[in-house]
Amino acid sequence: MAEWIEIKDDEQFEDLMQEGPVITVFGSSSNGAWNMARGPIQSLALAPMPIPPYVKVLYVDKDRLPQIAQKCNVRVVPTARFLNNGKQMSELTGDKVTADNIRQSCDKMMQAAH
C-alpha cells in the first residue's frame, strides 16, 4: 500500500519531493471534478498493490496552499505529476487524472526508474 500524504506546508512538500518515487496530485476542494475523482484516486493509493508501497502519493490542495501550486506552475486541477528523485517523469491533467491513468503512469515511471 502506498502512502497518501496531505501536504500541510511548503517545507513538508519540499522534503518529500526530493527522494524516491513520488506522485504529486494537485486538487481543489472547490472543484467539482476533483471532488468526484479524489475518492477513487485515494483508494488506489491505499489499496494493497496497485501502487507500490514505497511510492509516496502527495496531495496538495490548491485552495489551501496556492503558493505551492503557483511555484509548481499548476494551472489545471486536477494535475498529477510523477517524479523520481525530484525529476518529473510525466504528468496528467484535467479529465486524464483517473485511477486507471495514474496506475498506468506509475507503472511507466517505475519501469523507467529501473
Automatic annotation (TrEMBL):
It comes from the Bacteria. Pfam families: Thioredoxin (PF00085). CDD domains: TRX_family. Residues 54-105 form the Thioredoxin domain. InterPro entries: Thioredoxin-like_sf, Thioredoxin_domain. This is Thioredoxin domain-containing protein.
